[in-house]
Amino acid sequence: KVLKSREGEVIKLHDLLNEAIRRAEDSINEKNPELVGSERDVVARTVGIGAVKYADLSTERTKDYVFDWERMLSFEGNTAPYLQYAYARISSIFSKWGGERDNLKEAKMIISKPEELSLSRRLVEFPTVLDDTISSYSPHKLCTHLHSIASSFASFYENCNILRESSGEIARSRLALCELTAMELRLGLGLMGIGVPERM
Question: pLDDT of the chain along its 200 residues, tens only?
């Protein structure tokens, strides 16, 4: 159905995206009032437009969906802001760490907790899911998988020390998992034309 305003007028895409940006800015002001000026404007645009794109692409193309601003811009559930926030959280970890991310390619992977194993499995599945998404013209499959990666990362983040880990090898292994997670989130969202802010 054609998306219309309460007054019955057809909503133009330009106006829809501007409203998404405005609402995203309100959410960001609540979540991180320290984000100000041009950086806040760029993040609001990235989150707002990303939310609209993701809401459309994450639904199977043969199914209808209800246009819902609150669900679309939520920082929970299968939404672009949830995935973007996971990416920003990883960027924050690396800002605090201060080391060279490229050096983590040589890190020995040590899987000692179930959350590390779960996240690792999601990350390994990414190429297969991407191939299936492309061959079946089904972007919702990639969206579902990116959400599973972000959810697994959230559990990993809550249950596994990263920067406070006493073992240097384990800390590097966990940082390597963070780096792989960030790479896959950035790539997956980027393929859908959705950006990932470093801070939110």
Answer: 555 556 566 678 888 899 999 999 999 999 899 998 999 999 999 999 999 999 999 999 888 877 888 899 999 999 999 999 999 999 999 999 999 999 999 999 999 999 999 999 999 999 999 999 999 999 999 999 999 999 999 999 999 999 999 999 999 999 999 999 999 999 999 999 999 999 99
DSSP reduced 3-state for 198: coil
- Residue given tokens 């601003």 in the structure block: 69
What is the pTM for the complete model shown?
0.90
Partners of 4 in beta bridges: 10
Evaluate whether 17 touches 52 at the Cβ level (below 8 Å).
yes
Residue recorded with tokens 């309100």 = 26
* Residues 28 and 47: beta-carbon distance below 8 Å: yes
Nearest to 27 by CA among 79, 65, 67: 79
C-beta atoms surrounding 107 within 10 Å: 16
C-alpha to C-alpha distance for 131 and 140, rounded to whole angstroms: 13
Which residue shows structure tokens 């880990």? 165
From 196, 30, 185, select the one nearest 123 (Cα to Cα).
185
Q: Give phi and psi for 79, each to the nearest 5.
A: -135, 160
